[in-house]
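Possible regression after last week's pipeline update?

I re-ran a chain I had predicted before the update to compare outputs. Posting the input and the new output here so someone can diff against the archived version. Not blocking, just want to make sure nothing changed silently.
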Amino acid sequence: MTTPVERNLAVLRVRMAVAGLGALLAFVPPSSAEDLPKQGSFAVTYSAAGTLTRTIDFADGTKVVANEARMIATNDAGQGIFHNATGECLGVRAGDSRNGYCVFTDKDGDKFVEPWSLAPGAKKGTATLGPGTGKYKGIDGNLEFEVVTSLPAATGTYNFIGKKRGTYRLP
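New output (post-update):
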């Protein structure tokens, strides 16, 4: 049987050990699977679901068509840029050009913009990266994207799966 003094000493030892471990951990720099190297390449698979939101006829049957889309992306490496990110996109097709912007957000709430361009009817396009917030602040990059599979969709909507490949650089 232990005395009250022995019990108090045991409690004190446990408290000191916990405090010492806490102090030790305070000096260990944080590490995160979400940390990005300063530069790299990536391969990404994404899905998109969108809606044609507005059409304006302007000449000889030519139209300006606006669309909105939501994307879900995963980095094929299982980590890094675009991994488990969502995208909100706006696009416009006018004559022979199709351009837009996507804003991607990762699980930490950090964001970056992806301005893109695609010829009407084409399945491959190009994009750049930047600007960004948080870990993406100062990001610069280039990529090519491709619509791999178009999926069934109701009139006025679209769904597809695509691939992106590119490089990025952070300051």
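Follow-up from reviewer: compared with the archived run. Residues 4-26 form the longest helix (23 residues). Marking as no regression found.
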